[in-house]
Amino acid sequence: MESDPAAEGPPVQHKTDSAGAPDETHKLDSERGKMHAQIHAQMHAQVAAAQVHDVLSLLLVFRFLNALCVRTFFQPDEYFQALEPAWSIAFGGNSGAWLTWEWQHQLRSSLHPAIFGLAYKAVDEVMSFLHLFPPFRAFILVALPGALQSVFAALGDFYTWKLAMDIYGRESNAPWAALWVTVFNPWQWYCSTRTFSNSLETALTIAGLCYWPWEMLAGAQANKTAPFQQRGRVTSLRISLVLAAIAVLLRPTNLLIWLVILGFSLARLMLTGESPLPKSTVWALFREIVLCGTAVLGISLISDRLYFGFWTFPPYKWLYFNISQSLAVFYGHMPWHYYLSQGIPLLTTTFLPFTIVGIYKAASSSPSSNLSALQPNILRTLAFTTLAMLVALSLISHKEVRFIYPLLPILHILAAPYIAAFFTKPSGGATTTTTRPAASTSSSRSSRVTLRHKLTLAYILSLNLLLAGYLSLFHQAAPISVLSFLRSEFERIHPDALALGSTDLSTTSTTTPKKKKEEELFALFLTPCHSTPWRSHLVYPALRARALTCEPPLHTAPGSVERRAYLDEADRFYLQDDAGVYGVEFLAEEMWPNLLGGEGKGKGKGEEMPRYIIGFEGIEPVLQAFFEEGPTKGMGVKLRRVWSAWNGVFNDDWRRRGRLVVWDTGVYGDSYKERIEVEGEEGKGRVVDEL
């Protein structure tokens, strides 16, 4: 919107008569100018508010569609560190939720799953009141977490744009570049709507940074009034601190980000070359840190007390087990350069060159005490926050890209001005090369630019869309779709066992059901542990299932011989001998030992014969060798493929390569084979299509 000359022009000069009274004509002109300026400011505020509303609304719709399109499996923490405890919160201890060892030893805060647990409970109560059909209720509950997470993802995108707007100015193209990079980033599409604690942590972090009082980094001449004496700034600081405290409770490593931000804010002398902050400002800052931190900590303690049944402090347990007991190494050891060589490139993909330039330019900029020094000082702080986080996390043996996910919005903001400068130019044709993003001015408006390097931009966007589409729809999609198949089969075979609440039926693999019709073990997963979601997708408590486990060696000392020799259940199943054979010995000695003694179905752990066995196609020779060629031949097990699905082009784990397959053991009535015979050629055609 163009500025009105009356609002920006020089002040009106007032002529006076000999008596010193103001000239009426000029006085009227001055009042008209002021009124015009007020109207212009009001209109500008209304346009800005409408723009903010439109951006947020579009992002909410976009991320909701994003959540619906993500139909692949990525990491088990998405389900076992969020949705399984959430399911337990909503439907009780007998609901069949799989609570891993972290929850048994209080390593995780209950705040994150409580969000989804409350949503599960509220939505299920509404559906129960409406007497909706159980399969439809199950479908809604499966889709609910992604829909809820899409709101957090959209807010993270929104605050990325808003912080960029605050840094670069409303009339700069950089904020819009940051927004478009966020929207077209394949990693964001792939992960932002997943229910990782890292995804919520990322949204909380960028929102907290947006509310942070960055004016503390401005020059002394810009801070004639203490920052927290300005209207609304204390409230903004409190919001920032509350969001930061929640993020730290979810992921204790998030504390590194805020320590760097706080350190640079307090060390304004290094950034501006001026006198340090007033004592009143420092006192107010620490007062609010204590108050907000204590309030959030109190809420967390109460939540954990209600969930675990006793007082506990998960961040301490997390540090104890992962650092003192060195259990993090049990889940993988990566080289020191992992985040530099793989982490940042995976996060930024095609925008990596602009990200490197943005970090370098911001980090190498010189501190200034000028009135306009706030922008470079903020960028410099964000750059050093990124570098400090990367260095600190590189010292930890176990590394995952998700651990540096909260840095991604910062990287988008740092790269945004260089992306805008590369792909746009003033509409008049002139281009300007700068070593630092220029502050916004009235002569550089976002509406006065045109695109350039269009072919390069088209290639980049096309590649990003292809990556996002493949990863979200095809790469490791089978672990999700197989659960839909099992759930639909259970609905067909047991239509009277579709209750969603707590029941007397035990759904764990360690106890035996009491009623005859409840003895069926519906599914056995012979896959690497946590290869599929669990109760959040199986839904029904009566759908009993068992899977190979991978509990860490909590009973062993760090560095001991016992820990080095420890093999979990999944490792023992896939342990190969010198001839490359695996699995048969495990099945005979641990899964069905009583079959070899001719006692039929056993009564102990893992000795029940399931209706369906699920595994990747590489284990088919193992199953055939055990059931058809070994001592168990003639026990009535006739394996038959009833479902299979492609699982992507590649997989770095040889155990997960190939199609995911469901085999019917044939030991129960109303089997898939019998259904085909009843349904005739039509049913046979459906099976062929599924295979």
From the N-terminal CA to the C-terminal CA, the straight-line distance is 60 Å
Low-confidence residue ranges: 1-20, 269-275, 430-446, 503-517, 598-606, 683-691
The tally of helices reads 26
What is the total domain count?
2
The largest beta-sheet arranges its strands as: 4-3-5-7-6
Tell me about the biggest sheet? Answer: 5 strands, mixed
Helix content: 40-55%
The secondary structure category is mainly alpha
Give the percentage of residues in beta strands: under 5%
- Count of DSSP strands: 7
Please compute the radius of gyration using only Cα atoms: 30 Å
Quaternary class: single chain
Average pLDDT across residues? 82
Shape: globular
Secondary structure layout plus pairing:
Layout: H1 5-8, H2 24-69, H3 77-91, H4 101-104, H5 111-129, H6 134-168, H7 174-184, H8 186-191, H9 197-211, H10 233-250, H11 255-266, H12 268-272, H13 279-308, H14 314-324, H15 338-348, H16 352-364, H17 374-394, H18 408-423, E1 424-426, E2 449-451, H19 454-473, H20 478-493, E3 521-525, H21 535-538, E4 545-547, H22 561-565, H23 569-573, H24 584-591, E5 610-616, H25 620-629, E6 640-645, E7 660-664, H26 672-690
Parallel strand pairs: 3-4, 3-5
Antiparallel strand pairs: 1-2, 5-7, 6-7
Helix pairs in contact: 2-6, 3-5, 5-6, 6-7, 6-9, 6-18, 7-18, 9-10, 10-13, 11-17, 16-17, 16-18
